[in-house]
Predict the structure of T-cell surface glycoprotein CD1a-like.
Amino acid sequence: MLFLQISLLAVLLAAGDNEDATASQEEISFKMIQSSSFYNRSWVKIQNSAWLDDLQTHGWDTNSGRIIFLRPWSKGNLSKKEIKDLEEFFHGFCILMPQVTHRHASQWKFKYPFEVQVTLGCELDPGGAIVGFHRLAYQGSDILHFQNNSWLPTAKGGTRAQDVSRVFNQYHASKETVQILLTDTCPRFLLSILHAGKADLQRQVKPEAWLSTGPNPGPDRQMLVCHVSGFHPKPIWVKWMRGEQVQQGTQQSGILPNADGTWYLQVFLDVEATETSGLYCRVRHSSLGGQDILLYLEHHQGSVGLIILAVMVPLVLLTALAFWLRKRCPAYFSLF
């Protein structure tokens, strides 16, 4: 029954795919992240959160040890008992993890201050399979991963990773709980929140796009900027083009969240000032129904010219009127 649900979900998620503009065929992951900042032996700051891809779905109240559900559908199909069990597990881990790390910091050559990040979750691939993962990173680099009920050192972790894995593998009860989370709880939960949050996750919001120029990168050069904002879902394709050719040197910022849950990005092109003719920004997104947004640079420059013209013409007319009045009514102007 579980594999039937997965197959049906994969079909739903693939609907409306655009090979250039969307990534609905890509993996979808749910992950819980614990970031621990070890400032010294007596001061540790711990932050817990959970994410469906780039969308935060859960937070953590460090005072009460309770999970914070950030979306109406964030509970999925978890029972009250499962939620309570998860809270107790993560609360216990928040206590045990710093204790173990402090105790072995010198042996593992962890130098204060340092960061440790633990990630636990599962991923739905385009074929419908769900795979669990559990990783531990030191200073941003993975040193351990969980597989077949055991912590294994990464190849790049060296002797430090081997030492850490030996210690973590001693906590058998914790490993058994993790194994259940990876093989049962997380796959069920991922499917349930994808179903419960389908309307929110699959909503289509059309992007708005406009052009501007940035600081000149050098003599006789110009920085062109294409802004795209307010779109959902996140996958999008934006390029500077001339004709049907994508311009080399196009650079894209990160895709950043807006306050309303939509997304925003900028795409830059550094060109010679004399080589801007025919350039345009092309935007493809699933919400546009195959009708790409095309923003031509000539139109943008023309609109700027019209604005300047709209300002200058009244000024010229006012100057001419003042000059005419001065000639016709010199006595009036002599009063000032």
